[in-house]
Amino acid sequence: MDFDLALPERIDDEEQLDELLSRPTPQTVEALRRLNGDVVLLGVGGKMGPTLARMAVRASQAAGVGRRVIGVSRFTDAEAERRLNDWGVETVRCDLLDPRQVERLPDAPNVIAMSALKFGSTENVALTWGMNVYVPTLVGRRYAGSRIAAFSTGNVYPLTDVRLGGSRECDPVGPVGEYAMSTLGRERIYQFFAETAATPTVIVRLNYACELRYGVLADMARKVFAGEPIDLSMGCLNAVWQGDANAAVLASLERCASPAFVFNLAGPETLSVRRVCEALGRHLGREPQFTGQETATALLSNGQAGHRLFGYPRVPVDSLIRWTAQWVTRGGRSLGKPTHFETRDGAY
């Protein structure tokens, strides 16, 4: 089964969007051809989970490998669960904070751990640590010995000089705020099980995945279109097409190791918020409004190591900007979950 990697000029609807987000790369197909066994995705009901699970199904089919792809979530949205089932993803309802429910989850040699809490973390600090540290403890116990690809975030790094290309995996961490500290705690728990239970693990520091309904580019486009000011104090950022992020995560299962292997999953450019908004404005027919001034530091990740291992992102930022502006102009659906990319104090 071959997948056409040609990029469309525009994305007209959510069906086309989800298909593109879940279209595997040849490298992902080959990785899933070599991997043995089923794949469980924990926290599949989030923003990235559905198309990641669908890509796992499509890549496995293309590889000629019969495997179960199992999505685990509370599934408060029945329609989301039905859509996954239609795509060939088995679903299991589970509250990952309940150890008894976690223990009953199906066995699998490949696990993608996505569950986390970011937004609202400042108002609910205890739940933030519960989701970001306690849940990984339960997962580490339940799936000891399985390959685990554990989502993390570039927020574990401190703000860095925008001229230096972003934090690398070998750089010291320096989380700012309760959310970032709890995500470093999540990493440490998975590293603990990698070393004490010989659980092969890869830690994915993501910064930031974008699609048209959600992400930093969608946030900026909607503000420009509505005439709302964009704060320039976080003057630079990274962005990567969520489909490319999906492909890298699946391919990374082959890199699971003990001790845990860590890589940054980020777009190749250091993007200027001002320049991106100006480009969006040209597509939208709007003049962006700004507030504040750029500062010398920003939350930036260097994704070059991941690009070498798992492939260079297929979708360039110019296409992302054009697609996003077209989507917003046509009144395309938003998930209504702002990224708060401009936050500098770690308070989400």
Briefly note the structural class of the backbone: alpha/beta
Number of H/I helices = 12
Give the spatial strand order of the biggest sheet: 3-2-1-4-5-7-12
Tally of strands: 15
Q: Biggest sheet, open or closed, and with what strands and sense?
A: 7 strands, parallel
SSE arrangement, N to C: HHEHEHEHEHEEHEEHEEEHEEHEEHH
Question: How much strand?
Answer: 15-25%
Uncertain segments are none
N-to-C terminal Cα separation, in Å?
43 Å
What is the overall silhouette? Answer: globular
Please estimate the helix content: 25-40%
Average pLDDT across residues? 96
Radius of gyration: 19 Å
Brief summary:
By secondary structure, the chain is an alpha/beta fold. The chain is built from 12 helices and 15 strands.
